[in-house]
Write a structure and sequence with these properties.
Elements: H1 2-38, E1 43-45, H2 52-60, E2 67-72, E3 76-81, E4 87-92, E5 102-107, E6 120-123, E7 131-136, E8 139-140, H3 149-161, E9 164-175, E10 180-192
Parallel strand pairs: 1-2
Antiparallel strand pairs: 2-3, 3-4, 4-5, 5-6, 7-8, 7-9, 9-10
Length: about 210
């Protein structure tokens, strides 16, 4: 009788403990989503401390329709675009401090087998010998970050009105038939461009 009572008590404790853990996870998740309600839907405060599970939940809840800003307490604001499933774009056109306009494309957590998340693919500072081409609604703007202020201003004006940004990356590959290196399109990456009003906001420039 005593053994049965002790066993039942252990089971009750395990159930209660599991319930508490589940409730805590639920409350933490609700807390992460509540951050969206406390701010503009596309200007979001990043919690200072997040577990791996909370961080994953937070990232999945981020907007996927165009631009949004993440505010970091220590690192300031960053303008981001997660509308592409496999790539994440960070863009800075107006700097809060010293710096010049630029961009960074990183692999997302869902690229390939999932082990590339957060790794840099290409940026305005690191092209690894590749040629990049920005297109807005299929109109070619070349590489506005390498062409000077006038071309960049033209690109920014068009960016605010466009619906789709396409970044095409060209690499040089050896052609065995000609025995020469030839430029070929490696990939094109599309992003949606909702909430263009955020493009005017000063953000932290650079990675």
């Amino acid at each position: 009788m005593t053994k049965t009572l002790i066993y039942d008590t252990k089971i009750d404790y395990m159930i209660l403990n599991t319930f508490h853990k589940g409730l805590l996870t639920t409350l933490l998740t609700i807390g992460v989503y509540a951050l969206h309600a406390q701010t503009n839907d596309h200007i979001l405060q990043v919690p200072e401390t997040l577990s791996e599970q909370q961080l994953s939940t937070f990232k999945k809840s981020l907007p996927k329709d165009g631009w949004f800003i993440l505010h970091f307490k220590k690192d300031g604001d960053r303008l981001l675009n997660y509308s592409n499933k496999n790539y994440e774009m960070s863009l800075w056109l107006h700097c809060t401090e010293n710096g010049k306009p630029g961009f960074l494309i990183e692999y997302s957590d869902t690229y390939g087998d999932g082990n590339y998340g957060g790794i840099d693919y290409i940026s305005s500072n690191t092209k690894n010998g590749n040629r990049i081409q920005f297109l807005l609604d299929h109109q070619d703007y070349g590489d506005p970050f390498a062409k000077g202020d006038d071309q960049l201003a033209r690109f920014e004006t068009a960016l605010k009105k466009a619906h789709q940004l396409t970044l095409s990356v060209y690499t040089n590959e050896f052609n065995p038939q000609t025995g020469k290196d030839e430029e070929k399109l490696n990939r094109s990456i599309d992003f949606k461009l909702e909430h263009s009003e955020l493009l005017d906001k000063p953000v932290n420039c650079g990675k």
